[in-house]
Specification:
heterodimer; A: mainly alpha; 6 helices; 72% helix; 0% strand; flat; B: mainly alpha; two-stranded antiparallel sheet; 2 strands; 73% helix; globular
Chain lengths: 160, 500
């Protein structure tokens, strides 16, 4: 069977994520240390970043050595931590959420929430336009009104 | 231990029906605000604080503490049903509550959570009743080195709790600590702000918590139809809620252990409530005959977490009453209510107004019992969340989280934090890093840095200073003891895997 012939894949995502985090820790610690006015500015940050970088490198190294040991063996299910499901729907939703938050200062919470909910429903397979419009309108209006009228939160809005 | 005359006076004070009229509405408000992602107990208490202006002191505080008590359990509802801890003290509730809900045991989980919460609150206030007159001396003995070790204990506990490797747990915890240091330092240095004035106050903790827990989990749920996959399990039966309650009541020792730990650790200002639920959960896991089932929907883990986080309410009231120090946002609003009625907490307040202090404690114990009935109805209705299609629920929760985070920060930093931490959290989950460790690091990091700086200033940089601090040494020993079994197990497991 095809799955039996599939070899253990190199954990590229896992290793890249660990190295990216380690680089971010290192950059932050260096930046803080370089601009520090005194030892108290970096007293926690530099040692903590050092420990974090060590932990991340150990983790990346362990992943690589585990893969090297098993590289000729058939792949075991779920490939460690990744679920095996396509990340594309989640990535699309993240893009949509980022767009929603980026547009709020321009189009406000009322219109922004309406557009976000409509597109989120469409993205998840809802094709009935009247259901999309009705649900988006009801939820966005209710949430915005509750926060503005009941909780006295000054939300930026375009229409309400 | 108990001043009998003051105790009788307290009962007389509470016998006025007027003091009780405000309690059921307070509980319902707390349950409502606690159960909606993006809202919080402190928002509820702040919104209703002006309403107490025309009340007497006792009904005013009973009303606010009713919101506090109701919200304390209300936070468990999204934690169990949606994997969103409504408050920082219900982080551990998600560990087993959410897996139970996904397995279709949502009603049992809510029932267990309610009983754990009610009994935890009772344990917390009973301990407060017994110790309120002497506890202030104990809390004042905690110096910067002790507080630093407690903060570090909270972060390292995650290494015990999570199923991922210890290196991933440590890296995740340190990510949280480093995020918490963004913004102005005590010495006035701008750190990690990229020149943005919006980041001068740092990364807001609650929006980050929403992002790490809620948004990252919602991203994973895209494409799924319901929280509970099996349609036969998607039912809401009161019988199941009662079954969960019976299960919890059948394990009084575990509830008591969680409650006592919650009250003791919850009394530590600043971090108590955030760490209490994790410490109780870690202890329950270590003592369990099936530790591997923790994190996969073990009711004992849920009981430990809920009893501890509810009893930490009593613990945080200790510092409020005994020292006049708020332990968190909720008690800070209570302190505001004290000020509104010209009352100042502290040893003098306890000595001169013991009857009022006892009345507050007894009133809160009665509130906990009332919560059992009001909460039962509330969770029956909340259970219907499993019947709601994820297609509809995900956009609603996401909009509530974004709007709620804006309400917390008052600017776009809140919503941007939700998105950024949601994406980082999703990547962490994908590669097996425990997001809970990052959240705890974020919650205690600021305090850890402050206490580290103070420890260095007091000791002059000499590490031998801690040998003169017996409480620090005991806490360090506890920290190492809690880590040792997990580290030894991890090493043995890798050795076994290498030899196979």
């Amino acid at each position: 069977m095809a799955s039996e012939n599939r070899k253990e894949q190199f954990p590229l995502g896992n290793v890249l994520f660990a190295l990216a985090l380690a680089a971010a820790f290192g950059y932050y610690a260096h930046d803080v240390h370089a601009d520090a006015r005194g030892v108290t500015d970096w007293l926690l940050i530099v040692p903590a970043a050092g420990i974090g970088i060590t932990a991340l490198l150990i983790n990346a190294g362990t992943k690589v050595t585990d893969w090297y040991r098993r590289r000729h063996m058939p792949a075991h299910d779920a490939s460690n931590s990744t679920s095996g499901a396509s990340p594309m729907p989640a990535v699309l939703f993240m893009g949509l959420l980022t767009l929603y938050v980026a547009l709020i200062p321009t189009i406000g919470f009322d219109l922004g929430s309406f557009v976000f909910i409509s597109l989120a429903l469409y993205l998840q397979g809802e094709k009935r336009w009247w259901a999309i419009l009705g649900f988006s309108l009801a939820v966005s209006a209710l949430v915005v009104m509750v926060f503005i009228e009941l909780l006295n939160v000054r939300l930026p809005t375009l229409l309400i | 231990m108990i001043n009998v005359d003051a105790f009788q006076a307290a009962i007389n004070l509470l016998s006025t029906p007027g003091a009780w009229l405000v309690v059921p509405p307070g509980l319902i408000i707390g349950l409502f605000f606690g159960s909606i992602p993006g809202l919080s107990i402190s928002i509820a208490m702040a919104v209703f604080l002006p309403a107490t202006l025309y009340m007497d002191f006792l009904p005013a505080i009973l009303f606010l503490t009713a919101i506090f008590t109701g919200g304390g359990f209300g936070g468990a509802i999204p934690a169990i049903m949606l994997n969103i801890p409504g408050t920082s003290s219900s982080v551990a509730t998600t560990f087993d509550g959410y897996p139970m809900a996904r397995r279709g045991e949502h009603a049992q989980a809510l029932g267990i959570g309610l009983v754990g919460s009610v009994l935890g609150t009772l344990v917390g206030y009973v301990l407060l009743l017994l110790t309120v007159q002497s506890i202030s001396h104990w809390v004042l003995r905690l110096g910067p080195t002790e507080m630093l070790v407690i903060a570090l204990w909270g972060v390292t506990l995650i290494a015990v709790l999570n199923d991922a490797s210890i290196s991933k747990g440590i890296a995740a915890g340190i990510l949280g600590i480093l995020i918490s240091t963004i913004g102005y330092s005590d010495a006035g240095q701008m750190r990690g702000t990229f020149g943005s004035m919006y980041l001068l106050d740092g990364i807001p903790a609650i929006p980050a918590l929403i992002g790490f827990f809620a948004a990252s989990e919602l991203f994973n749920l895209i494409g799924k139809q319901y929280i509970v996959d099996d349609s036969r399990l998607r039912v809401v039966k009161f019988r199941n809620i009662l079954g969960g309650m019976r299960h919890a009541l059948g394990k009084p020792f575990q509830l008591l252990r969680g409650g006592v730990m919650g009250a003791v650790i919850g009394a530590i200002p600043g971090v108590g409530a955030s760490i209490a639920n994790l410490a109780a959960y870690a202890t329950a896991k270590q003592r369990s005959k099936e530790p591997e089932s923790f994190g996969k929907g073990n009711p004992d883990g849920l009981m430990a977490a809920e009893s501890a986080n509810s009893s930490s309410e009593g613990g945080s009231m200790i510092t409020l009453l005994a020292l006049g120090l708020p332990g968190g946002a909720g008690t800070a609003v209570l302190l505001g209510a004290f000020a509104l009625h010209n009352v100042t907490g502290g040893p003098r307040f306890i000595r001169e107004n013991t009857d009022i202090v006892y009345a507050l404690i007894l009133g809160n114990m009665a509130q906990a019992l009332l919560l059992l009935f009001i909460g039962s109805v509330f969770i029956f209705l909340a259970g219907y969340i499993v019947k709601l299609s994820l297609k509809l629920m995900i956009p609603i929760v996401m909009v509530l989280s974004v709007v709620g985070s804006y309400a917390i920060t008052g600017n776009m930093v809140g919503p941007i934090t939700v998105v950024a931490t949601g994406i980082i959290g999703w990547l962490m989950r994908r590669y097996g890093y425990p997001v809970a460790a990052t959240v705890v690091g974020l919650l205690v990091g600021g305090m850890a840095e402050g206490e580290l700086v103070r420890s260095m200033q007091i000791s002059g940089g000499h590490i031998g200073f801690v040998t003169d601090r017996p409480i620090t040494l005991v806490l360090l020993a506890l920290l190492l003891l809690s880590l040792a079994p997990r580290i030894i197990n991890g090493v043995l497991k890798r050795r076994r895997a290498a030899t196979q």
